[in-house]
Every structure is written in C-alpha cells, then in structure tokens.
Amino acid sequence: MITFIHTADWQLGKPFSRVADEEKRTALRSERIAAVRRIGDIARAANAGFVVVAGDLFDSTQPTKSTISAACDAIASLGVPVYVIPGNHDHAGPGSVWEQPFFVSERRDRAPNLHILLEAKPVESDASILLPCPLHRRQSMEDPTAWIRDLDAATFDDRPRIVIAHGSTVSFAQESDEEDGGRQPNLIELAKLPLAAIDYVALGDWHGFVQAGDKAWYSGSHEIDRFPKTGQTPGHVAVVRASRGAPPAVEAHATGRTRWLTHAETFATDTGPESLKETLNHLVGNTDRSLTLLKLSLGGSLGLAGHATLEQIVQSWAAGLLDLQLDRDVAVAPSREEIEALTQRAGDPLISSVARELREQIDRGGADAALAGTAIALLHEFVHAGGTR
Ligand SMILES: [Mn+2]
C-alpha cells in the first residue's frame, strides 16, 4: 500500500481583482502560499510518500517571478517529491511558465523535488505508476485522458496506477467550477477509462472535495478562493491510500484557513444596526476578522441615527475583514424627531433652513422625497461628525 497527498487548483498568483484593497489582495495571495506549506504538516503526519498536484498550480501561464520563487520555496518545504500536471490556467502551450528560463532555474536550484509532467505517458516513481494527462491549451475539446484507454497495462508491475487529470467529468458537466462558465472543454469521460487497470484518479478543476466516480476524486483547492456554492467543501487536500487492485481509501484533511461567509439582514427599526453588530461578532468573532471574507446584503430602511450607526459598523468591518463585499440597499426613513431636531438648530440658521426645505420635499413625496431623504441623512452625518458647532 502507498500513501500520498492529492491536491489541485492552488492557483498561486491569483489576482483577486474583485477585492478593492491592494494590501488585502496581497494577503489573499500570501495565504495560498502559506496553505501549500501546511500540506507538508499533513504529509508528515500521514507519512505520505509524495504529493500529486492535478493542475492549476499557478493561476496563469505567466506568473510573476515573486510568485514562482515563493511557490518553489513552499514546494521544497514539503520534503517529498511533488508531481504536477499543467491545468487550463497554467497549460503547457507555447510560452508557458514551465519553459520560462526563470522557472526552470528556480525549480532546479530551489525545488529539485518538483516534477512537471508535460507528456501524456506513464511515469514510474518509486512506489507508483503515474498516468499524467497534462493540458497543452486552455480549452481542448478532446478528452485529456483518452490516451489511457488504449494503454497496455500488461507491461506494468504491481505498483498502484494513478491517473492525474484536470477538467470536468461527465457527472459534473452541467456545473463547471470555472468562473467563466460556458461550454464544457477538457471533459473527462471516466467511464471510458480501463478502470480495472487503474487504482486512483486524481482530478483537478472542481474546487470542492468530492468523489466523482468509482476510484475518482476531486481534492478541491487547498485554500478557498471564492464564496463556495452550497454543499462545497474547498480548503482541503485528499490523503489517499492506494494498493494495486483494491479500492482506494480517501480522506479529506483541512488546509485552508480563510473563511468566506455570507449574511443578509433587512432593517425595520433603528435598533437593527446594533443587533447586526452583535450578529457579526457572533458569526465572525473578534479575533478572526483578518482571515474572513464576508458577503453582506443589507436591505429595509433606517432612520438617520440608524444610518449613522450602520455606517460606523460598516467602516469597521470593511477595514478589519480580509474583504467585505457589501450589497447595501437600505432606504432612509428619518424619524420625525430627528428631522425636527435638525430644523431647529438655534445656532445654525443655514442648517435649519436646508433641513426645513428637505423636510418639505420629503412630505411632498414622489421621486424627490427619496433624494431629500438621502440628503438629510448626509446633513445629519455632517452635523454629528463635528462639521459645525
Ligand atoms: Mn481549472
């Protein structure tokens, strides 16, 4: 029996362009490198003999030199051979990273345990026979595993045979995990593989840990890189125990540490923001904000005081979280007391007269009322931020 780690879809160098804050984009990229290093802890604990990366080690065919160097150092830290196939993101077509002189020399000098499998042909490692299915272009309409169908397995000894492939399988064809969607390239037909002659199929491309067939698993990405769809479990690697002619034993082990949470709230009263604060503290915790990304949808309506409280809460969480994706559609419904107070500021005749004008527009209703509501909220904020005495 052999034990190895199956992982995929590291997508090192992913730009995270939807995250507005540059410092946080950098932190997200660093987390993907740090998660590679944590694979080493799992490999040592499981006594794994090697690591298989089933495609998309890099996010693009042209990663930066910093990304290449960080990747090589992290891979070297794993301490066991690491076998990699190119996926669709880092395919081995012309001008690929794999033939770039900087990558070639960094791999040689920093990560001699890293082996890039560029050809569709059997590779005999010490303990196993690897059957790599590298991608040579981003999208191919040919099944990358097709070459294995005609393989003469009689020439192999009794080492376990491991297919390494990247793409959708027929069972997952309708739900590609690629963000660009569209028609299904790189489609793998597991049923056409000579499964009796194969002991494990290590798949990449789907970002959650999931069994895709009799002997086939997706490990998912080692660190979460998007808000997961329901039921997905990204942020894991697979620890695989395989023997020739026996079913594999496959376990998911957590390697990710970023959290991607979703929350929605509809406000009805001005106490809403305070209760949102409680909810977020409970959901995220006060010590873990810098590793958490939150998609927050806010609706309903609030008075002026409620909006001011909400704004303070939003600013704190936007700064403290690894990212806050805010969908805020909260109407202004100022209380009569709040408007009256603004219209009667004895020392501020200008503020008072503007507030009275806005109050009249709100009372008249119609399209201008919503604008006036927003304006009076801004006026309230201005007054309470010390813009006037
Ligand atoms: Mn992919």
Mean pLDDT: 92
- What is the global morphology? elongated
Main pleated-sheet profile: 6 strands, mixed
In CATH, the homologous superfamily of the largest domain goes by the name Metallo-dependent phosphatases
Strand content: 15-25%
**C-alpha end-to-end distance:** 78 Å
Number of helices: 9
The counted number of beta strands is 16
Low-confidence stretches: none
Small molecules bound: manganese (II) ion
Give the number of domains: 2
CATH fold-level name of the largest domain:
Purple Acid Phosphatase, chain A, domain 2
Gyration radius (Cα, Å) is: 27 Å
Under CATH at level 1, the class of the largest domain stands as Alpha Beta
Overall SS class = alpha/beta
Helix content class = 25-40%
The strand order across the widest sheet is: 4-3-2-1-11-12
Order of helices and strands: EHEHEHEEEHEEEEEEEHEHEEHHH
CATH architectural type of the largest domain: 4-Layer Sandwich
Overview of the molecule:
This protein is α/β, with parallel strands linked by helices and 389 residues long. Helices cover 32% and strands 22% of the residues. Strand 1, helix 1 and strand 2 form a beta-alpha-beta unit. It starts with a strand and ends in a 5-residue tail after the last helix.
